[in-house]
Amino acid sequence: MPEQSPGYRPTLEAVAARAGVSRATASRVVNGGDGVRKPLVDKVLRAVEELGYVPNHAARTLVTRRTGAVAVVIAEPEVRIFSDPFFSQQIRGISKELTAHDTQLVLLLVEGPGDFDRITRYLSGGHVDGALAFSLHTDDPLPAITRRAGIPTVFGGRPGWTTDPGERAVPYVDADNRGGARVAVQYLRDLGRERIAHIGGPPDQTSAMDRLDGYRDVLLDMDPTLVAEGAFTVESGARAMAELLERRPDLDAVFVANDLMASGALRVLRDRGIAVPGQVAVVGFDDMDPVAKETDPPLTTVNQDIEGQGRLMAKLLLRSLDRTGNGAAPDSVITPTTLVRRASA
Amino acid sequence: MPEQSPGYRPTLEAVAARAGVSRATASRVVNGGDGVRKPLVDKVLRAVEELGYVPNHAARTLVTRRTGAVAVVIAEPEVRIFSDPFFSQQIRGISKELTAHDTQLVLLLVEGPGDFDRITRYLSGGHVDGALAFSLHTDDPLPAITRRAGIPTVFGGRPGWTTDPGERAVPYVDADNRGGARVAVQYLRDLGRERIAHIGGPPDQTSAMDRLDGYRDVLLDMDPTLVAEGAFTVESGARAMAELLERRPDLDAVFVANDLMASGALRVLRDRGIAVPGQVAVVGFDDMDPVAKETDPPLTTVNQDIEGQGRLMAKLLLRSLDRTGNGAAPDSVITPTTLVRRASA
DNA sequence: GTGAAAGCGCTAACAA
DNA sequence: TTGTTAGCGCTTTCAC
Fold first, then answer.
1. What does pTM read for this prediction?
2. Residue nearest to nucleotide C13 (CA to C1')
3. What CA–CA distance (Å, rounded) separates A328 from B233?
4. What's the pLDDT tens digit per position in B144-156?
């Protein structure tokens, strides 16, 4: 890579001149070289190399009307984003996929309700070609915002909104929360457990709802005293476990809606000298690294491929951005989950 | 906000026409309105409002040569980024500051050594005005890359590189790791502890080095058998603690280089029935939320304002990007730390 | 297959 | 103070 005086940037014009061709031909070569004779292609390529030419992105965007950038919108005012590897992993997956397609990732963090205006303006401002958003709460304004902004969007996690009839469904990627929960609870049942409790997540998050539904699917005659509500944090899991033990000292298993809460629950059980899985079997959800492996005992839990979900989101979005005809509106995808057996159940 | 047929975007031309002024005047108003008479300003503003005009960013960049975007480069191939809230918090601070200055955040995740080429190309490609980078390892190639790319860069964390004489020092923001460590160890000493051990982080990270140096500052006659090395993870902290107890069962205090390792150490002490702080006092580093508050017992630790560091990084970079003359090259800043007393020491 | 030329939407001299 | 005009660097018809 030739080192130039910093700040100087050769233009396509310069490349064309050096290669002895027109700007148009140089442009064709830079953009793939279709329909240009081999010798000319080589000449141009050499000029590019020698000059250290890098296309001016702004100029390109101005004429093509494509920015080559995608916004990732994260609305999570809670502390949760700080202690939850969930986002980091999804973003990693997204980043990999976008990078592979020369697309930039513009991060939009929503700090508060007042920010929605800013986000709307940005999204409608032609800065990005599409958006990826995480919608966690049932009353999330994000779906409405991206719809209004009129840019293709794929959501991470099932949005809580029920689609109005006639309105186009919002495309999303989500794990099979309900199915995973079903498998987990069925597993506890097959183990012979009879009083299977559940520690659920915040009821305004669709993943929590879906996992609770999966629990209900298996335990049709669900006893409400066996269900406690947490907040997807370690501490809330501990509290919920204590509450359950208070109410139902006879419980012999718990299906916990995420690993963080499960680790809190395990701590409470250990502190009270209750054997796991001997007296109480515990199954978590997420297979979060490294939490699940390092609990005492190691946690049996439901694995979901979070990074893969991120990749998939990006993939779906990029496909809908593709102008070569097959740029159909993306469908939603539910990714599979698998039960990982460790020692807690 | 007027809803238009999606895809249509009014131009400055349209605004000017509607306001009955020239494009130049419209442009002036949109960019602050200096030197335009009030009534015209109002007219233009109204036209903007009515048309729902949003400036075309590409066109503007093309002529001003400023992108209004900043890259955040994160090179952390390790698992660590997944379990460490450190980055999320810094990014949050960065995001807030950038947003307040209408600057976009482009996220660049470095997945492996092969990625450095890509990053270099991107940074020199005029996509962004500057960069913020996290340099954690002493052999990090990032400083060299951003220098070669020739764009202003501010680092998070002291880069391990010793600056060649004559070469411009790399500007960075870092916590006062050494000073914080000094205060922590001195505090243990003031408590009357006489055999103060240390669990350090990976020696290729400057923060770990600096904290170790602070420990040494106080314990000049440092005994090597009192020092163990961890990897900034819970498990490694537990291992290091076990190792130390093996070697020096007589130790009466431990200064641990971060809270994650401290929580592992506490677990080991608890498991062995060693009273904290009765027999062994423990001080951590980071005051990580929620870890430090929720250990058993709650952790006495050194607080650093991570989000503030992020803000500061952005602030320094934006200042050096400012073209109004005072755009001096940024200096480095060391942010203060404070000891937070809880129950473990 | 290749080149000439128009124009994307905007800012910044320069004129008026 | 306001308007006119010349590009910024690129892609893309349209001729050749």
1. 0.88
2. B24
3. 45
4. 888 888 889 999 9
